[in-house]
Amino acid sequence: MPASKSDKQTSGQTDILMEGRGLERTFITGEVSVHALRGVDISLKRGELVVLLGHSGSGKSTLLNILGGLDRATAGTLHFDGHDLTHASDDELTRYRRRSVGFVFQFYNLVAGLTAKENVSLVTEIAKSPMKPEEALELVGLGNRVQHFPAQLSGGEQQRVAVARAIAKRPQILFCDEPTGALDSQTGIRVLEALDRVNRELSTTMLIITHNVGIGEIADRVLRMQDGLIIEETAPKRRLKPSEISW
Ligand SMILES: Nc1ncnc2c1ncn2[C@@H]1O[C@H](COP(=O)(O)OP(=O)(O)OP(=O)(O)O)[C@@H](O)[C@H]1O
Q1: How many folded domains does the chain comprise?
Q2: CB of 58 closer than 6 A to ligand 1?
Q3: CA nearest neighbour of 211 among 62, 68, 57
Q4: Which of 117, 122, 149, 187 is the most buried (most CB within 10 A)?
């Protein structure tokens, strides 16, 4: 049974799960340097759902890749659950990704020849204390689709299998890069409902990237990026249910 938010806050842990300070990322291609991140400060609290908004090219994916241990910052510091990731070796970063992090991307990347259950099993077989694949699929509302192959599922259902696959290993943090980007609004809302449920029931910390300002209403906190910096932070008065929003 995962600890509730209040349990965690009284157990002596700080309520900050992840913290980046002064994060910079410069890409050098031939003679051209792109300063994709120009000194980002970001803190993610345990159990919170944060939406990261920003125009194309503002640095959202670059930031997500660094926080998720897929890339390294050129400058700045990064800590996760008391561990310094700034100077982590490649092996340590791999361990961090395997044990603690889940990813959901715009395209679902399911294996076509495997059923929904088998796609989720790919992850649960190598995790330490995973959920049963059926349990993860039930949590995202696909308890009746476990034996279906990706081609027999709608786009939104396939994305929910991808969410089940990402959360079945019980990651502490889930990074979602445009999880509804390929979906119409009604289908996208079903995917957001699955994410919202995982966040509430498992207290999984979440960072969701989107272009879609309306999705900010389901968050505890909304961050907005521009030109490689977080330029605005807001907290909606009331966190709406995904079924209450539209776009
Ligand atoms: N591997 C790379 N090599 C060179 N430049 C890169 C690389 N990755 C990103 N960039 C540049 O860094 C900047 C930020 O890109 P990033 O993908 O983080 O933006 P984004 O906000 O996620 O955009 P989008 O919403 O379009 O996905 C852009 O100018 C992009 O061209």
Answers
A1: 1
A2: yes
A3: 57
A4: 117
